[in-house]
Amino acid sequence: MADTVAAVRDAVAAAAPEIRAGLPGRREQAGSENPSGERRLAADEYADELLEERLGAIDGVGAYASEERESAVDVGSGYSVAVDPLDGSSNLKPNNVMGTIVGVYDASLPASGRDLVAAGYVLYGPITTMAFAHEGTVTEYLVEDGEATTLNEDVTLPEDPTVYGFGGRVPDWPADVAAYVDDVESELKLRYGGAMIGDVNQVLTYGGVFAYPKLESAPEGKLRLQFECNPVGYIIECAGGRSSDGTGSVLDVDPTGLHQRTPVYLGTPSLIDRLEATLD
Ligand code: FDP
C-alpha cells in the first residue's frame, strides 16, 4: 500500500479511540450548524478538529475537507482527504452506532468518485472496526488502542442478500421508490438504524440494499457525495457490490460542489440492477 494511503488509514485508526472516548461528554448541541444546515454537536467539532490535525500532518496529504467545514483547508501538497468526522451523530443521544468516513482523492475537491484511490470507515459499535478499501479490495480491521489489526482480508458481499434499510419518511418516498421497497420487502428483512455506516456495514456483512433515496421533498436525498456517498460507494464496489444514484454508479456523479447531495443506493448487484429498472 502506498505510504500516504497507509498513513491515512493508520491515522484514522489511531484517532478512533480518542473520538470514541470523547463522545460521552459531548452529547450536547454546539449551538451552530454545519454547511448543510444541520445542527452540530460538540462531538462533531471535536472529531473534525482532531482529524484535521492528524490527517493534515501526513506527508502527501494536500487538502482536508469535512462535512463540518464550508471549504477545504490547504495542508500541503498531495491527495485530498474528505471526511465525515461523525456520521450518524443524531445517534449519539440514544446511544446507537455511529461512524467516521474518509475518502482519499487524487484530485482537488470537489472530485469525482473515480478519483478515489482509497476509502474507509470506522464503525463505533459494541466493538470498533474499520473497513478500508484500496486497489480493489476491502479489508476489515479490529481497532483497539489505536491499532488496526486485520480481521478479514478481501471482504465481499455474501451471495444471498438478507437485509434492507431505506432512509427518509415513508410518505416522502416517491412512488417508484415505494414500489421497489414493496418488491424487496417480501425477500429481505428491514434493518435501519439511522447511521449510514451502521446500516451499510449490515449490508456488507449480510448482503442486501441500503438507500437514502430521492424524496418528494428532497429530490437529491440527504447524503453528501464527497464525504459519504463516494467513499462508501467505492468500498461497496471494491467488495463486489454496486452503488447507484438511481441511474448508474455514484462514482460517476458529476462533482459540482463540496457539499452537494445525491440519492444513493448501495448493495448486492442484482438488487441495485432491479432498483435501477424500477426507478423512473
Ligand atoms: P445524521 O444526520 O445523524 O448525521 O449523515 C447523515 C445521516 O445521519 C446518516 O448517517 C444517516 O444514514 C442519515 O443521516 C439518517 O437520516 P434520517 O434521520 O433521515 O433517517
Q: What's the SSE blueprint?
A:
Elements: H1 3-22, E1 29-33, E2 39-41, H2 42-56, E3 61-66, E4 73-74, E5 79-87, E6 98-105, E7 116-124, E8 128-134, E9 137-144, E10 147-152, E11 163-166, H3 175-184, E12 189-190, H4 196-206, E13 208-212, H5 225-238, E14 242-244, E15 264-267, H6 269-278
Parallel strand pairs: 3-5, 11-12, 11-13
Antiparallel strand pairs: 1-2, 3-4, 5-6, 6-7, 7-8, 8-9, 9-10, 13-15, 14-15
Helix pairs in contact: 1-2, 3-6
* Beginning-to-end CA distance, first to last residue: 41 Å
Instruction: Characterize the main sheet.
Output: 8 strands, mixed
Mean pLDDT: 95
- Are there runs of 5+ residues with pLDDT below 50, and where? none
Instruction: State the assembly state of the protein chains.
Output: single chain
Helix content: 25-40%
Q: Give the spatial strand order of the biggest sheet.
A: 4-3-5-6-7-8-9-10
Instruction: Label the structural class.
Output: alpha+beta
Q: Let me know the number of strands.
A: 15
How many DSSP helices?
6
* Anisotropy-based shape: globular
- How many whole angstroms does the radius of gyration measure? 17 Å
Unique bound compounds: 2,6-di-O-phosphono-beta-D-fructofuranose
- SSE string: HEEHEEEEEEEEEHEHEHEEH
Beta-strand fraction estimate: 25-35%
